[in-house]
Amino acid sequence: MLLSIKQEIAKIMNEIGIEVKSSDIVVPPRAEMGDLAFACFGLAKIAGVNPAEYATDLVEKLSSKLPGVIKTIRATGPYVNFDFDASVYIKGVVSQVLRAENNYGASSGGVGKSLVIEFPSQNTHKEFHIGHLRNACIGNTLVNLYRRSGYRVTAMNYVNDFGAHVVKCLWGMKKFHDGETPPVNAQKWLGEIYAEASNYIKDHEVEVKPELDALQKKLEARDPEVMKVFEETKEWSVAGFAKISKELGIHHDDIIYESEVKDAGQKVVDDLLARGIARIGEGGAIIVDLSEYGLDIALVRKSTGAGVYVTSDLALAEMKFKKYSPDESINITAIEQIHYFKQLFKILELCGFKGKMTHIGYGLVTRPEGKMSSRLGNVILYEDLRSDVFARLETEARARHAEWSDEKIKNNVGVLTDAVLKFTMLKHEAAKNVVFDMKEATSFEGFSAPYILYAVARLRKISRKAGFTKRIFPNYGALTNGVEKKLATMIAGWEEVEKSAFAEYNPSAITRYVFDLAQIVTEFYNECPILKAESRGVGAARLKLVEAAGMVLETALGVLSINVVDEM
Length: 568
Description:
Layout: H1 2-15, E1 25-26, E2 36-39, H2 41-47, H3 51-62, E3 70-76, E4 79-84, H4 86-100, E5 114-118, H5 130-148, E6 152-159, H6 164-176, H7 186-203, H8 205-220, H9 224-248, E7 254-257, H10 258-274, E8 279-280, E9 286-289, E10 297-301, H11 309-324, E11 328-334, H12 338-350, E12 357-362, E13 365-366, H13 382-400, H14 406-426, E14 434-435, H15 438-441, H16 449-465, H17 482-492, H18 494-503, H19 508-527, H20 536-559
Parallel strand pairs: 5-6, 5-11, 6-7, 11-12, 13-14
Antiparallel strand pairs: 1-2, 2-4, 3-4, 8-9, 9-10
């Protein structure tokens, strides 16, 4: 409703010759500045008058034209302030939310359009670490946002199962672990072998390079003996990834492996050579000179004849647009790969490729002591982090609820653990780095998942205890506590937050919103009693506000793929 009020005010202003957008009309930072405010500085400058005089004149022009929900309009210095009729406004917000339920904030702007969102693009024969976790959380949120906007979305995972890292891992298995039986967590074991092999190769590069090159050629030539080991070990990774995806509630509509496009990529490189887009560089490597575009030299095939990442990605782009026919394809990777994707997109453009490609880069996830590296073996694995978070929250739950059964504690803590991981990965803008601080992430105070889920649990508890008031007619006209209107405004703000998060590929806008809403829910809880309200009609109206707040809070968390609990 808040958005529609802004749009109506903007429409009226445009009708009298004042060009504004609804986004120019904002919720002011302080209650005494009204429920909405419009700054007149820009228009006053154009008109060549004092901003305060312009505001006074604008109030006179608008005073008889505004919608009924606006109770008063006034000029405060250079601002025009709008005050709502609390009764009409709160009732309108509550009615709109409860009528739309979890569709509140959704739109139909994407109906008839389709896109591919590619994430988290992890590698087989390596660990699934918290960098991949951040990628998965961003990707899953964007899938939800686009689908809520009416788009037909293909959630796709492109798994690198054929790169140099596989060669290192297979080489390491043969050299250091030949004949060993893999442990139960074979996926993790492969990652450890990769790190072990990488460290050894770093110190013995000249010695082992011929062996690695020979193994790479055999792999790409589909040598039967090598392929047997490759397929078996790949399956260990695939099974491990499937388990993690299930835990995170991630579903991919399709999974493409690099081994499926590697050969097609080599044909693309041959075509680039034939067309003069690529040329033979130093040592026989195939390159594309992008210097005139400020993008340096791009390697598209090694001197050994082996492909590189871009070799396969060129073929993958063609495959995606042929297979899915999307209006856009979105890639989500670490921000360090921005230059790589600029090179990839430019080569595709030079080839005459017309599909719209978008890259979203996210910052590193580190622990307090510094950057991770799977090559060095100092990564924070998703499974290890999940276990640590679960253990910390389990200790807290047992201290708070000695009466809970083991099963109840396990289920409750499992939901909270998932929420902590996802919320922490999404709480900052994608381009910013994240330092995972265990104490901060699991705190029941501040900008954290437990604090927000506690607010949800409170709302659910209120609804259970005050259910009888549902039979009583709500008296919105008697809601005179300012927190009630403040809560209604925050609830109504979800429409614009969802649109902003969608337009800017920014899930962090949602994490900030649910935190702000949870804070006002806490303020409302402390100041606005329902069971002990001054009248049953007031209690009933406040309960409607509680239901609307809970519905929007759970909807927003759902977009983040975060589940909630009844008790904490």
